[in-house]
Write a structure and sequence with these properties.
The structure holds two protein chains of two kinds. Chain A is mostly helical. In chain A, 81% of the residues lie in helices and 0% in strands. Chain A is globular, with a radius of gyration of 21 Å. Chain B is globular and about 30 Å long. The chains are: A mainly alpha, B alpha+beta.
Chain lengths: 431, 83
């Protein structure tokens, strides 16, 4: 590495790592819920345990990972100045974790006052992230596809949380629009408008960079994220206004979103196929994620063609499992295995002007440990889906989930520990 | 892109071909090459993605650059010392 040149102003490694390390720790209690509640958890999407587990994944795993990734990604890739956000990072992480756990407790205890408190806390943290990031993005000059998609993803997160707050704190309003319709809308904005669009934005930059694939086609870069947001906006109007009376409109809009998701999944799978590199753990996790996304799209289009399909027991839960555990968690897990070793390596290089021997990037998290963890995650997702038909499989899913998230926490902690150990070694050797 | 125009007809004396290399290898190679780049010479970097984080590093270190997407789908980045 260069002895002379200064590197870019990336945030301190503790800023993104504190969020990324919290992600598997917050996903772990979902295993306890699977094992404690058993088949009851998957009896209906409205069960207290299902709602609690869902929010451990969405706010706990995905939420913490996305905020942590943005803290690193925006200054480095988009050149956005988010120093205020970096200074607030420790507080935001503690409050986001507290809000997540409070929300989970509110669902499990079925406590309306606790639900309102949790909604207020989560809304406060998300508002801080969205406002501070939004100001930084408005000031920065970057106008590439990734920055635009990440901005849209933040807007999607704001809408998701707003709808969640309406459901949690204004039951009379929610009832006027229909609790089920509004919950579907909250889920659609969360899964497509926030998670998928943020993944698309990050993927446009990091899939070609870290997984050595060709670039995404210009049409995908330019139109996919805005198309999803535009469709969700019309869907929101369709649910909350007179447009609701137009027959088939809502189904058509859901099918359009499904087609966009399928398009992203198929294009990404094709890019991986076109890569000349041997697939590693990260690529396999992304392939699993994209296959889940395509499966969701096929199910959604299938439900449009044969409305009876959506009425089958477990259909909603199958979509939820595929989107959250199959798609969202898999791609985030895969990208963690690229980004965390890279951050450790980069920060050690910057702290090492004397060029003392440092670990190779591939040694920061052992390949074998990543492979076993990814396999455990795959088994957990497969058994969760199997549990919709054979309820007792949920206990196997709970065990595999616990093993997977525990191993992920250990693998990420090991990377942080290696960083601390080598950093200390460098510091003590410096004159 | 840099404001300076490098198109004076000269070819780069130093070439870093980083196509198909996984991070951090492209950054390592180009930074090592820039350590040795004499004033008045230019370095040509070939890479499969637009190396946007590199651009700010170059600006911070008083280098000028010109980035061009080739029809074959990779980027050519020409780098030289700012006067």
């Amino acid at each position: 590495m260069s002895r002379v040149l200064a590197y870019d102003q990336a945030p301190a490694i503790s800023v993104p790592l504190r969020f990324l390390l919290a992600a598997p720790v917050l996903a772990l209690p979902a295993a306890v819920l699977l094992l404690y509640y058993g088949p009851e958890l998957l009896a209906t999407r409205w069960s207290a345990a299902a709602l609690a587990a869902t929010h451990l994944i969405t706010l706990g795993f995905i939420g913490h990972s996305v905020v942590g990734a943005l803290m690193q990604f925006l200054p480095v890739a988009a050149g956005a100045d988010i120093r205020q956000l970096h200074r607030a990072a420790p507080w935001l992480q503690v409050l986001l974790t507290a809000g997540t756990l409070l929300l989970v407790a509110a669902f499990l205890l079925q406590s309306a006052p606790l639900l309102k408190m949790a909604a207020a806390l989560v809304a406060l943290v998300v508002a801080a992230v969205v406002i501070l990031t939004g100001i930084a993005l408005a000031r920065c000059t970057a106008n590439d596809a990734t920055t635009r998609a990440v901005t849209l993803g933040l807007a999607g997160l704001a809408v998701t949380i707003t709808l969640g707050c309406v459901l949690a704190t204004l039951p009379n309003w929610a009832a006027a629009w229909g609790i089920a319709s509004l919950t579907d809308l909250h889920a659609a904005w969360g899964l497509a408008g926030w998670v998928t669009i943020t993944v698309i934005g990050v993927a446009l930059a990091v899939v070609p960079m870290f997984q050595i694939t060709p670039r995404y086609p210009p049409a995908v870069e330019r139109w996919l994220a805005p198309l999803i947001v535009a469709t969700l906006t019309v869907l929101t109007l369709a649910v909350t206004t007179e447009l609701n009376r137009l027959p088939g409109l809502r189904e058509l809009l859901y099918a359009l979103i499904a087609a966009a998701l399928a398009g992203f999944g198929v294009v990404t799978l094709n890019l991986h196929h076109a890569s000349r590199r041997r697939a590693d753990v990260s690529v396999w996790l992304w392939r699993g994620g994209m296959a889940s996304l395509v499966a969701v799209a096929l199910l959604a289009v299938g439900a449009l063609a044969a409305p009876g399909l959506a009425q089958l027991p477990g259909f909603d839960l199958l979509i939820g499992i595929l989107m959250l555990a199959g798609f969202g968690m898999s791609v985030i897990n895969g990208m963690m295995y690229k980004i965390v070793p890279f951050l450790v390596w980069l920060h050690l290089q910057q702290a090492n002007p004397e060029r003392h021997p440092l670990p190779h990037m591939g040694q920061i998290i052992p390949q074998r440990a990543m492979r076993w963890q990814a396999a455990a995650h795959g088994v957990a997702v497969a058994l969760l889906i199997a549990a919709l038909a054979w309820p007792l499989a949920i206990y196997g899913a709970g065990l595999a989930w616990a093993v997977s998230q525990l191993m992920l926490a250990v693998n990420l902690t090991r990377a942080a520990w290696r960083y601390a150990r080598f950093k200390q070694g460098i510091t003590t050797r410096l004159p | 892109m840099s404001a300076d125009d490098p198109s004076d007809g000269r070819t780069a004396a130093f070439v870093v071909d980083a196509r198909g290399l996984e991070p951090p290898e492209p950054m390592v190679r180009v930074m090592n090459a820039l350590d040795e780049l004499p004033r008045g010479e230019r370095l040509l970097m070939l890479i499969h993605i637009e190396p946007r984080p590199l651009f700010r590093v170059l600006e911070r270190n008083q280098f000028a650059y010109h980035c061009e997407l080739k029809p074959e789908g990779y980027f050519e980045v020409t780098i030289w010392h700012r006067k």
